[in-house]
Design goal:
heterodimer, A: 531 residues, alpha/beta, seven-stranded mixed beta sheet, four-stranded antiparallel beta sheet, 19 helices, 15 strands, B: 446 residues, 43% helix, 12% strand, globular, PyrdxlP-dep_Trfase (chain B), transaminase activity (chain B), pyridoxal phosphate binding (chain B), PyrdxlP-dep_Trfase_small (chain B), NHTrfase_class1_PyrdxlP-BS (chain B)
Chain lengths: 531, 446
Amino acid sequence: MTQPQTRDEQPTNPTRQKSTGMRLIVPLQGIVQGRGGLILGTLIPCALFYFFQLYTKRNRGNSSNTPSNPPSPSSSSPNLAELPRTSSRLSLFSRVGSSGPVSVSGRASLIARENDSPYYIGLEKVSKDPYDKERNPDGIIQLGLSENRLCFDLIEKWMVENVREAMVGRDGEHLSINGIAAYQPFDGLMELKVALAGFMSQVMRKVVSLDPSQIVLTAGATPAIEILCFCLADHGNAFLIPTPYYPGFDRDVRLRTGVELIPVHCRSADNFLLSVTALEQAYNQARKRGVRVRGILISNPSNPVGNILPRETLHNILVFAQEKNIHIICDEIFAGSVYRGEEFVSMPEILMEEFDKNRVHIIYGLSKDLCLPGFRVGVIYSYNKNVLALAKRLTRFSSISAPSQRLLISMLSDTKFIEEFIKTNKQRIQKLHHSFVDGLKQLGIQCIESSAGFYCWANMSELISSYGEKGELDLWDKLLNIAKVNVTPGSACHCIEPGWFRCCFTTLALEDIPVVMKRIRKVAETCKSLS
Amino acid sequence: MAIEIEQPTVELSKVAVSETHGEDSPYFAGWKAHDEDPYDESSNSSGVIQMGLAENQVSFDLLEEYLEQNSEASSWAEGAPGFRENALFQDYHGLKSFRQAMASFMEKIRGGRAKFDPDRIVLTAGATAANELLTFILADPDDALLVPTPYYPGFDRDLRWRTGVRIVPIHCDSSNNFQVTLEAMEAAYMHAVAMNIKVRGVLITNPSNPLGATIQRSVLEEILDFAKRKNIHVVSDEIYSGSTFSSSEFVSIAEILEARGYKDSERVHIVYSLSKDLGLPGFRVGTIYSYNDKVVTTARRMSSFSLISSQTQHLLASMLSDKKFTEKYIKTNRERLRKRYEMIIQGLKTAGIECLKGNAGLFCWMNLSPLLETPTREGELALWKSILHEVKINISPGSSCHCSEPGWFRVCFANMSEPTLDVALKRIHSFMDQRKTDAIQSPPQQ
């Protein structure tokens, strides 16, 4: 069994054994050379060596993290991605006794394992060597993070003109921080809920008006999803989720709640759209295994494909959920990025028909549509009063910072600015999408026809050497390390068909696209010549 | 329009229906009473005065002054390029400048007697999130943390609710001013063992809430040694460290570790926040400082569920790095808190009420046991109710803090103006006078 290693430490036992052993043997041989001869001379060190091995073997399991020096406060954290995938790891970490280091929980070791996903590895690599047109033209181009930078200039302009007044109130002549310093309701200021209800309605093409009292605010969509899982399911229960899906769900849904995600595979033949037959199949299989399904988690618009669920499909999903008496969580965080004229039907709109609304919960946030992931604004919109009451209490662990709330209330209430912003945003996304997809087409790479999102779902199966996950990861690696372009492989999104990749283009400017295509072409040509 | 009959047909989780959110305790019931009839100097002078909320409002003016004089800190007027990076920044490492500012602020509070490495700081949206996060990392469901009583009522929820971890109390009493003893720690540990529960750590609050007193150096040493013998963690919630009335009286566990050359320090983790010392609970700024590399890394990743707004980090980074400001603030804040404390102690004394000798925090620990009808929890709650309805002040009964001796109450003094505090003290005075008169007129039945 190999020792878990950290970047800053040397493996304690294997090499130390050898060198210590040698240090014992050599002088000992010298001592016994005079008397007893060769036999004693070899016997004694061997015996000592044997006992030494016995001693260290007993302590091997415990000494995983014992540093040889006292931990200095300035040592940087180890790279846990290098931990080997041994099944005994959990027991290693959970062993408690008077010897060995103090242990952490089983949950903590789960997190340590997590960063093996290419999704996270790619993000980390880019952060160390990010592309910059002027300062680092050979750096890695980020196409793995669905972040929208296209309309930043508009937000910046608004901020510069409005921020001070927006954030800190005035009490006559002087600044007053009373409004932002004191304890606020953990689930968000009512004014922000009102402003968000208005914004969400605008984004969903004003078909429905949303009720601010059905909103609970959280520090980003990440805790919003986790909180809903805590409300709707117990440890060991499961949610059905169509694949491919956003890699972050594995962490958000499963990590601390113990809730399982059961994939419902979608295929390219259906344009990766969910079919209720597949849903039914997955549900029944889960039941056979004795797993209780508590709900379905869908993203609409979808990530990573960029599809919009047709009205009929949404309707069928609702019928299915009603039949099985389970919940639906609908993540609509990309609702504002619908650029193709196609009809986006949001959950609130469908729910105007006759359905038991108590089972429907919507996730939203400002990270995508308003380009402000740093501010941490997530929304739970639910029709279930009990869920709202409980979620409200849970927001004490994930509340939005008050000054940021004040700032956003101001911005979202500037309806003229918001209208202009939403419109321009869609136009720019569409332009970039068009250009990017075209560029890929010229390389012989086709994408699924998508209508929303910051990315395209590209079929690179012809470029992979062996049709399977390994071949796909090989290509991902080549793209990352040779072409120096970070994309997200379909396997990280649990896609059942190998060779698909998500490429985000909203972190690029139009003029970056040719650079990207040139780099991909390099790798594409090598792959084609090999296959 | 059809009448909608609300029929929750679809089930919720066990967490949803569990009682561990603790919101049925008197601690929260008092808040409700206050919310329904809040005191206001001008518009509602007979309303309920909130003395159950540990909020620091005594030094707001200093913050406002800083913001007024340093407007570039709060805006991006000149640093517009900085804004882009900031608004996109959702890295769970947190802004480096902000972590450096927090480290330097924490050092200042401890008079430079301990050093903090910014790379060991993990940011969370408030200390509430920090405590829960640490519990997730250090313990598995059904494991336990040992916590000295009396303790902050919120722990029942923050440490136990979603984590499934238990709290086993370390009983402290007034015989030695509620200090933690080795016997009490051993007893709690054995109690857990007897119940087949694995103890993963000790969680202390220093300065203590609700006692309003710092933990002595010798006791901290004892706790560390105990933790070492049992090979468990120590979490030191030092959220009130900047609210000690004099800098010299507070010993942080960080100082002891430094004195020990950081030997065996990877079991120690400190929680801090700006909600109390800086009076900014609305900002949601908390930190975990851990001497354990693995805990730092996993806490950081888990902090994705409770990140601090990058805008807030940016805003506070310059403020907390401003040495002149932080020195002045810490000193003035301490002074003002001390004065408030003296005012309330004096006021209570003249009313015939004794308090535990305190030297920190935003509250005092008041002994009303002589007033109890019966020296029981019920007696205490009855007294609490009458104080809430007759005196119209909301204070926190010791039972909600799991105090083993009935009759103690936590009274907050920093979340109001001085005139309001005066009103509260007057009301208490007349309440006590009334009771004396009642006692004379109708002596207690045998």
